[in-house]
């Protein structure tokens, strides 16, 4: 029997499902005789989820079900399930007014209810799909993967139907082997209810594949909801230029999910893919790489890509990305502006070079500033989002004042109205250096459940340790009271009022004799 593969993208925010699209495209190129269908529950009203999934299975009658689960996002920094999870948590933990604490507790219960409700709903949809598809093919194969599964694969194993293949990281090689009856023993996966995952499974390197331009003429044929993302032209459509991240940032799980080996997609293939979307009316692109320029050795690849975009004549596009701004050059800045970059995010985490070093970020903040000046000189006049994660390691009044100085310098370069500080508090995730540190320090106990939203677990996973934790709690609560619509800038203003602004030179220096915390020495 010729396999029939149904990809089910489980409900999430309306973000272009680039992972499922690339997976279906790859399988089509390897096995063109297969029949495939993409079904995107992100485009379906919630009350219709179950009925719509059942109808799709009745129509297509798959032999293989592939579920894509993108989000199990517990600690969002802004509005999310039932409101703002971070605000609710801080009101419970740090508010002095009992009525504010009560409001936070009620909001937290709404968040908890929505969170566990979504977990139950997605697990229920997987069971429903499997049960319904067995009417037509009793031996149907089920695979579950995606970003959420890659992070929480160990916990989900006991909750998914027995026999489900749980995929970690990239799924192209795994699915190809399943469809061609090859052994999957060497792939990053395991079978729920049959085996336990190998130790450190997520740290195994993904199988490299050669990426070519996605065939959107084919994708249109198998994905009826494709036009949903083209309506109005307001979506940023994802395009991937590389996979992998070579860095060791202490709290980030990208480097293990995607692997540390950076694999570049050929520039001509990326442009050919963009051209297909461009001809369908797309003008906004998001480069979905972990980092658009992960290291200086990849600058020539970025230059080649942007030159090819210019040569292709797509002069009226806009694009955005996560960018390590320490890896810019004047030539690259010029090309970014000419090709239409109108937004980018910098995840520097702290404006103190000392803390950047201790968090293993690999940034030189002085270089970042100079490169931002080059970008401004090249004509960039749009929005910059700067991600700050306060209180990760060794935060103290001096380093806060240094971060304020650094942020004000970025405002001097781009304009205060163009620099948007995004205030994060780290949600501690499995498989990161920060988790290892928390286990060794006794903050977390072995066998803890990282998917738990119970208060005694949540306070540890929402990383805001004392002695600075209460202080940040007070400042954030004050910012929400004073100006919730401009939370980030208000936090920076309040911190400056309390701690002042250090000399910029202090922010840019990191004395080698500074005390090294246990996290920094744990992995030497």
From TrEMBL:
<dbReference type="GO" id="GO:0003824">
    <property type="term" value="F:catalytic activity"/>
</dbReference>
<dbReference type="InterPro" id="IPR023404">
    <property type="entry name" value="rSAM_horseshoe"/>
</dbReference>
<dbReference type="GO" id="GO:0051536">
    <property type="term" value="F:iron-sulfur cluster binding"/>
</dbReference>
<dbReference type="InterPro" id="IPR006638">
    <property type="entry name" value="Elp3/MiaA/NifB-like_rSAM"/>
</dbReference>
<dbReference type="Pfam" id="PF04055">
    <property type="entry name" value="Radical_SAM"/>
</dbReference>
<keyword id="KW-0479">Metal-binding</keyword>
<keyword id="KW-0411">Iron-sulfur</keyword>
<protein>
    <submittedName>
        <fullName>Radical SAM protein</fullName>
    </submittedName>
</protein>
<dbReference type="GO" id="GO:0046872">
    <property type="term" value="F:metal ion binding"/>
</dbReference>
<dbReference type="InterPro" id="IPR054650">
    <property type="entry name" value="Slr0320-like"/>
</dbReference>
<dbReference type="InterPro" id="IPR051198">
    <property type="entry name" value="BchE-like"/>
</dbReference>
<dbReference type="InterPro" id="IPR058240">
    <property type="entry name" value="rSAM_sf"/>
</dbReference>
<keyword id="KW-0949">S-adenosyl-L-methionine</keyword>
<dbReference type="GO" id="GO:0005829">
    <property type="term" value="C:cytosol"/>
</dbReference>
<feature type="domain" description="Radical SAM core">
    <location>
        <begin position="229"/>
        <end position="465"/>
    </location>
</feature>
<dbReference type="InterPro" id="IPR007197">
    <property type="entry name" value="rSAM"/>
</dbReference>
<keyword id="KW-0408">Iron</keyword>
């Amino acid at each position: 029997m010729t396999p029939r593969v149904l990809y089910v993208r489980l409900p999430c925010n309306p973000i272009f499902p680039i992972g499922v699209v690339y997976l279906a495209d790859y399988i089509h190129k390897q096995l063109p005789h297969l029949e495939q269908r993409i079904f995107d529950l992100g485009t379906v009203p919630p009350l219709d989820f179950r009925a719509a999934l059942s109808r799709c299975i009745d129509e297509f009658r798959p032999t293989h079900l592939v579920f894509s689960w993108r989000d199990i996002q517990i600690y969002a920094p802004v509005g999310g399930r039932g409101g703002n999870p971070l605000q609710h948590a801080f009101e419970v933990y740090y508010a002095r007014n009992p009525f504010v604490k009560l409001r936070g507790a009620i909001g937290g219960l709404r968040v908890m209810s929505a969170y566990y409700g979504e977990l139950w709903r997605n697990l229920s949809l997987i069971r429903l799909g499997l049960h319904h598809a067995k009417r037509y093919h009793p031996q149907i194969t089920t695979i579950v993967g995606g970003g959420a599964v890659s992070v929480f694969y160990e916990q989900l194993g006991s909750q998914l139907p027995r026999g489900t293949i749980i995929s970690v990281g990239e799924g192209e090689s795994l699915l190809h082997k399943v469809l061609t009856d090859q052994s999957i023993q060497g792939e990053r996966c395991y079978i729920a209810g049959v085996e336990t995952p190998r130790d450190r499974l997520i740290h195994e390197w993904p199988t490299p594949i050669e990426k070519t331009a996605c065939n959107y003429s084919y994708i249109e044929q198998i994905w009826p909801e494709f036009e949903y993302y083209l309506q109005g032209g307001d979506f940023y459509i994802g395009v991937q230029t590389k996979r992998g991240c070579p860095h060791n940032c202490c709290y980030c799980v990208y480097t293990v999910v995607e692997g540390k080996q950076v694999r570049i997609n050929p520039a001509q293939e990326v442009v050919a893919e963009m051209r297909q979307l461009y001809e369908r009316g797309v003008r906004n692109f998001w480069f979905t790489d972990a980092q658009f320029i992960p290291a200086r050795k990849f600058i020539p690849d970025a230059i080649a890509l942007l030159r090819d975009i210019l040569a292709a004549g797509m002069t009226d596009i806009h694009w955005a990305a996560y960018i390590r701004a320490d890896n810019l050059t004047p030539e690259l800045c010029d090309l970014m502006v000419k090709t239409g970059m109108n937004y980018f995010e910098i995840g520097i985490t702290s404006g103190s070079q000392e803390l950047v070093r201790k968090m293993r970020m690999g940034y030189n903040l002085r270089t970042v500033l100079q490169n931002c000046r080059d970008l401004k000189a090249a004509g960039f006049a749009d929005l910059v989002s700067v991600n700050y994660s306060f209180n990760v390691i060794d935060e103290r009044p001096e380093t806060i004042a240094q971060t304020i100085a650094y942020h004000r310098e970025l405002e001097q370069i781009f304009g205060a109205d163009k620099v948007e500080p995004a205030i994060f508090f780290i949600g501690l995730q499995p498989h990161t250096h920060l988790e290892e540190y928390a286990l060794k320090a006794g903050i977390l106990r072995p066998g803890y459940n990282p998917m738990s939203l119970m208060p005694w677990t949540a306070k540890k996973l929402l990383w805001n340790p004392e002695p600075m934790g209460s202080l940040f709690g007070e400042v954030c609560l004050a910012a929400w009271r004073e100006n919730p619509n401009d939370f980030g800038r208000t936090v920076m203003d309040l911190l400056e009022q309390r701690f002042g602004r250090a000399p910029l030179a202090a922010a840019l220096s990191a004395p080698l004799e500074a005390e090294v915390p246990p996290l920094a020495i744990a992995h030497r």
